Amino acid sequence: MFKKLIKYYRPNCAPCAIMSNTIKEFMLKNSDYLLEEVNVNELTDQQYEATKIKSVPTIKLLDAEGKELGSFVGSAQFAGFTNWVSSIMKTQASK
After folding, report:
1. What is the third-level CATH fold of 3-93?
2. Three-state DSSP class for 71?
3. What is the pLDDT of residue 78?
C-alpha cells in the first residue's frame, strides 16, 4: 500500500523551493509514496484552517488509510528529510 506525502507551499517561498528539490529526489528513490502538492495561496480561509498548518513549507506524512503519521515544518536536505520519514515509519512498524 502506498503512503502519501502532502506538501503545503507558496510559489514565492525560498524554503519551499528547497523542499521541492528534496522531495523530488525523495520521490525518485521511494516509489511507494504518493505526493500531493497544495499551493496554500489557492485555499480559502476555511480550507487553510482545516489543514492545521502554521507555516510553509509543511509536509504531512499519511499512511495508506489517510491517517496522519507526522508533519515536517521547514526545509531540509535529502538526508535529513529521509531520516525523518524513516524514523516515523520505524515507529509505526513497531506498533
Report:
1. Glutaredoxin (3.40.30)
2. strand
3. 96
